[in-house]
């Protein structure tokens, strides 16, 4: 399973990078395959472990912000591993053809 999510603190002003970094740190320390871009952090693993990471990422932001917004999208595909890499490689292969 791959989950792409974003955690946004609300009520803390316009500069939220420090809060987002706290959430991304939780993901990176989880040991699960992950990737962060300008809009989302994607994490790959089994349902319970991925959702636990998302929950902890939200919780770390919640500790410092009065309100938190979570956007989450999941690709639930049993038996597939290394989707973070293989999906991008497939697209790149088609682009180079």
TrEMBL record:
It comes from the Bacteria. Pfam families: Thiamine_BP. Residues 3-92 form the Thiamine-binding protein domain. Belongs to the UPF0045 family. This is MTH1187 family thiamine-binding protein. It comes from Streptomyces ureilyticus.
């Amino acid at each position: 399973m791959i989950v792409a999510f974003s955690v946004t603190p609300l009520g803390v002003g316009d500069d939220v990078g420090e809060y987002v970094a706290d959430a991304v740190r939780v993901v990176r320390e989880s040991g699960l395959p992950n990737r962060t871009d300008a809009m989302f952090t994607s994490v790959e693993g089994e349902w319970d472990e991925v959702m636990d990471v998302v929950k902890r990422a939200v919780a770390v932001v919640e500790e410092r912000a009065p309100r938190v917004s979570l956007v989450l999208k999941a690709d639930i595909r049993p038996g597939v591993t290394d989707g973070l890499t293989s999906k991008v490689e497939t697209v790149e292969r088609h682009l180079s053809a």
